[in-house]
Amino acid sequence: MDLIGGCRAFVSVSETGSFTRGAAAARIPQSVASRRVAALERHLGERLFDRSARRASLTPFGRDMLPSAQRLVRLADAMEQDAKRARLRPLRVAVPDICTTRGLAELDAEARAYDMFLEFRRAAPGDRAELVRGHDVRAAITAAPAEDGVWTVPLGVASATKLHPGAVHLETLRPGRHARLPRRRVWIQPEDDVPHIRDRLMRVRDAVGLQPAQVAVADSLTAAAADVFGSADLLLCSTAQARELGLHWRPVGELRLARGFGVTAVLDDDAERLRTRLWDGIAQCLGATSEGRPDVDRAQEADRAREADRAREADRAREGGPS
User: Where is the composition biased (Basic and acidic residues) (predicted)?
Assistant: First the structure.
């Protein structure tokens, strides 16, 4: 039986002295209040109310049971409040430094439509998964090879000076024997200082005969952009970053490079919600393409099914049926 529902009806009727007023206080029909009290009496094996009088008066057994019923109702109310607060507890997510403040704010706003409240912690690619393992955050957007990623961000090179149409071939950066101009460099920002990007680029550097210093890892995106603004150097970046910085972007001629991102989380449910419900918002933050986008219709259908289940449960509760 519904022990908590029965105790709620029992307490409400005892406090008002009437099944009619007690049912109104509990926001249930009188017939439901009567059924719940009768079910509680059967469960406990003794009558709680003397129904021979006009007023719903407690039997001696009912007076003995009332304090326990009141404690159970208070405990159930407290549990519901705790559950509400727990649902509002922010989901702390480690995110790449490349995410802009506006992008994160828009992602947070989108998450609130799903009753998810996000807090963000920017971190380097090598640190984000470690933050999850140490339970400093509940989830992280982690770096992964493009072919394994949930989100994919194509990379190319960008320059402050206008570039020729078409791809930029790194071999064109090789200085001539009598060249007097400074050697042009390709700057790798910290987010791309991962083996599946850095090492591939370094192999091409060596294959086309560039000097080791011509492909270098910058201390920060800001430092890399500053070098590019003041020279003919190139920045390895996404098209979204190039637009933000006002740079001219082109793909790399010798190879296709892309960032890949996945999700690591303490709880599988958190990872699934980020991958499905917030796929678009995270993609926007990262500058990702639609390649690899999950079956959003299926995710939306699952959301609708859950909403329908909650609505049915609410209807049953109002009607007094079992949940």
Answer: 292-323
State the Cα–Cα distance between residues 77 and 62, nearest whole angstrom. 22
CB-based burial label for 245 (10 Å; 0-12, 13-18, 19+)? middle
Token code pair at residue 227: 């070098």
What CATH class has 3-87?
mainly alpha
Q: Domain segments of the chain: what residues?
A: 3-87, 91-142+264-306, 151-174+182-259
Give, in order, the Cα–Cα distances in Å from 286 to each of 184, 261, 310.
Answer: 28, 9, 33
Give me the helices (H) in the chain, please.
3-16, 19-26, 30-44, 60-87, 101-112, 125-133, 195-207, 221-229, 239-245, 268-276, 279-286, 296-319
Tens of pLDDT along 34-69? Answer: 999 999 999 999 999 987 767 888 999 999 999 999
C-alpha 296, offset from chain centre: 15
Task: Please say if the pLDDT value at position 20 is more than 60.
Answer: yes
Tokens of residue 13, six digits? 């009727």
Phi-psi region of 292 (alpha: psi -120 to 50; beta: other; left: phi over 0): left
Please report the pLDDT score of residue 143 as a whole number: 96
Output phi, psi for 93, to 5 deg. Answer: -125, 130
pLDDT band of 175, cuts 50, 70, 90: confident
Sole residue written with tokens 């507890």: 89
How many CA atoms does the CB half-sphere of 203 hold within 13 Å?
9
The pTM score is: 0.66
- Fold entry, domain 151-174+182-259: D-Maltodextrin-Binding Protein; domain 2 (3.40.190)
d(CA 291, CA 306): 27
d(CA 137, CA 69): 40
Q: What DSSP line would sit under 262-277, residue for residue?
A: EEEESSHHHHHHHHHT
308: amino acid identity, one letter: A
Amino acid identity for residue 197 in this structure: I
